[in-house]
Design goal:
Chain lengths: ~300, ~210
Amino acid sequence: MNAAPFIPLLLALALSPLLLGIINRTKALFAGRRGQPFLQTYFDLWKLLQKGAVYSRTTTWIFRAGPMLGLAAVLMAAALVPFGNCPALIAFPADFILFAGLFGLTRFFTVIAALDTGSSFEGMGASREVFFSALAEPALLVALATLARQAQSLSLSTILGQVSGGHWLQAGPVLALVLIALMIVLLAENSRIPVDDPNTHLELTMIHEVMVLDHGGPDFAFILYGAALKLWVLAAFVVGLIVPATGAPWLNVVLSVGGMFAIAVIVGVVESVMARLRLLIVPQLLVGAGALAAMAFLLGLNK
Amino acid sequence: MIPTNLILVLVVLTNLKLLGSSRIGSSIRVVAAQGVVLGLLPILAHVHDLSLRFTLLAVGTIAIKGIVFPWFLFRAVREADVAREIEPYVGYVTSLLSGVVILAISFWMCQRLPMPETLASSWLAPVAIFSIFAGLFLIVSRKRALSQVLGFLVLENGVYTFGVGLAPQTPLLVEAGVLLDVFVAVFVMGITIFHINREFDHINTDQLNTLKD
C-alpha cells in the first residue's frame, strides 16, 4: 500500500505544536529573552491531558462536546490538504469548499460552547469572533476559487500540486495577490497579532482567548491542539503555493517543512514588529484581504 | 508582458488603497507613487521599439506627477491648514467594496467593447477604465476639496493609461497637451483651495451651497 497520502496528515499531527514553539521563540528573540523551549506546547498538552475537567453547573452537553467536535473538524481539514507534493488523504472535486466549511464548523462549535457558559464576557468574544470570521471567510473562499481557476482543477491536491514555477512566471501578480490575501486570512483565522493578540488577557481586547476561558484540562488541550493544527493547515496552504515541486519526493517534503518553519518565523516577526490593530480597523484589513482576493480572481479570469 | 501587467496591478492596488485610506498625507503619497509607476509604463509597454518620444513622455510624467504635484499638494495642505483626516460621505469599507465592484464592471465592459489589436496588455483597457471610474467615485464621495483634486488626478491617470496603450497611434503633442492641461488644472485647484480656505475657514465643498452675499 502506498504510504504517501498519510505523510501530510502524520506530519501535521506530529509537528503542528512545534510551530507555536517557533513563533514564541522568535518573539522572545526580538524581545531579548531566552524564551520557552521549542517543545513547550507538547509539554503543555501533556500536562493538560493529565488533569481532570471541571464543568460549571450552568453548562450543558454542548459545552463538553464543543472542544471535541472542533478538534475533529480541524483533523478532517488536515486530511484534505496535500503537503510537499504528497497528495492528501482525502481528495475529491470541490473539496476546497469542504475545507473552508470545516473551519466554519470549528468556529461554530467554539462559539456555541462559549455561549453555553452563559457568561456575558464570553458572549462578547463570540460576537467578535463571528464578526471577523464573516469577513475573513469570503477572502479565503475567493482566494481558493482563484487558485482553482488558475490550476483548472477543483481538488486541493491537484491545485497545490500543479501551481509551481510555471504558473508564477505566467500569472505572477495573480498568485502574489492570492498569497497576500491568504497570509492575512492565516493571521486572522489563527487569532494572531494584527487582528487578535494571543497573549492578552485584558478583557476588552481579546477575541479568541475569551471564548475558551471556561474550558480546562483535556478540553483545553483539545482546543490548544486544534489551534496548532489550524495554523499548520493554513500555513501548509501558503507553503504549497510558494515551494516549487522538485523531482525527488523526500526533498519536497523536507523543503516544505522548512517552508512551514519559515512561515512560523514570519508570524513571529509580524507579532514582534506590529501593534495589534484597533477593533474598528480590523474589518478594514479583512475587507482589504477580500478585495485583494477578488481582484486576483478578476485578473485571473481575464488573462 | 509581465512588467506591464505588474505595473497595471500596482495601479489597481494604489486605487484600492486610495479608496480605503483615511489620511490626506498618505493619499497624496499614494497618488505620487501611482504617477511614478505610470511614468514607467510607456517605456515598459514599448520596450522593443523604444524611442526618444516614449523616454521623454516617461521623464515628463514622472517629473510632473511624481514630484511637482505632491510638492504642490503638500504645500496646499500646509498653507490651507487642511485637517489630516479625510471626511468621506461613503465609508472606507464601503468605498473599498465599491472599488471591487467597479473593477468587475470595468472588466465586464471591456469584454463587450471592440478593442484595438495593438494594446500592450489585455488588462490595460479594464485598468484604465477602472482608474477613471475610481477617480470619479473619489470625487463624488469625498467632502474635502483636496481629496477631490486627488480623485481628479486618478481619473486623469486612467485616461493616460489608456493613451499609453494606444501610444503608437497618438502623437506626442496630444500627450504633452494633456499633461499640461492637468498641470494647469491642479495649479488652479491648488490656488482655489487656498482662497476658499481663506474666505470661509474650511474647504468642505458641501457647505459651498450656503454661500450668500
